[in-house]
Amino acid sequence: MRRIALLALATALVVAGCTEQTGEKGGDDRRPQKVDGIPTSAGTHKQKMDVGTIGHREFLLHVPSKVAGGKWEDGKPADAPALVVALHGGLANMNKMESLTGFNKLSDEHGFLVAYPDGFMTTWNAGDCCGAAKVGNIDDVGFLSKMIDKLTDAGLADSKRVYVTGFSNGAGMAYRMACEKPDKVAAIGVVEGALVTKCDPSRPVSAMIFHGTADRNVPFNGGGDRDFNDKRPFPPVSKAVDFWRERAGLPRLGERVEASGAGTDCTSTGKGDKGVAVTFCKIQGGTHSWPKGASPMLWDFFADHPREG
């Protein structure tokens, strides 16, 4: 009897081990541990990705429990969640952006994925800025596009609800993504950044733009140096606001938007015929920093502006 009991216990352990490898219970169906190599369990996962060059690129992916523990069908979430891509500023990294924005908490509350990519030597090639990524002509548009495709093609994110936000140099990169890959981006969220790349998008993109009046790094009214080797001034923030508004054929800003954070004054164009809108948040006395209350405001804006068509 003792041998039979031990054999039964060993068999049970083997079965349990196989179950852990093939999947975990998630809602009504089994959830695979990975899809196309991407972990599906709740939490933040560090990922490496081949982009066809020497070495690899990295990003953090936060999966909320609402997705991990929700209903899965055929190895994919039954309702693919939205994806927010958050780009760090110059001389920072993906971990810094994760802690700076607090998007993980919002992700857990609302059930969207968050990806925090790492720039090249702490910088992004946003066109005329910045640093090593610009000097090396790094294909950051290609990297981010491939990352987005990896997540949407795997069925882990909704291709019509991909949003890109960034701070400073990362904000300039968000602009560049909207300029060059508007078919992949439903809306952008720009915080203390400048439009310093050639821009001729094939379709309009919704944009929410935050900028402080006391920003000395990227001056509100323009000025400063675009990069260490480029003494041309940054354009004023109004240039970017007007560009995206006019590209979508939208009226001038006028609709008041409720804002959180002291000194933050937000106005919007309201939605146009294609569901596109531009909202500008002026932060009186705001410096070159991530504004208090910006993250939940960005998510609310994103959630209201999926890509149509």
TrEMBL record:
Keywords: Hydrolase, Signal. Residues 21-47 are annotated as: Disordered. It holds the Pfam family Esterase_PHB. The keyword Signal applies. GO terms for molecular function: hydrolase activity. GO terms for cellular component: extracellular region. Residues 22-34 have a biased composition (Basic and acidic residues). Gene3D superfamilies: alpha/beta hydrolase. It comes from the Bacteria. This is Polyhydroxybutyrate depolymerase. The lineage of its organism: Bacteria, Bacillati, Actinomycetota, Actinomycetes, Streptosporangiales.
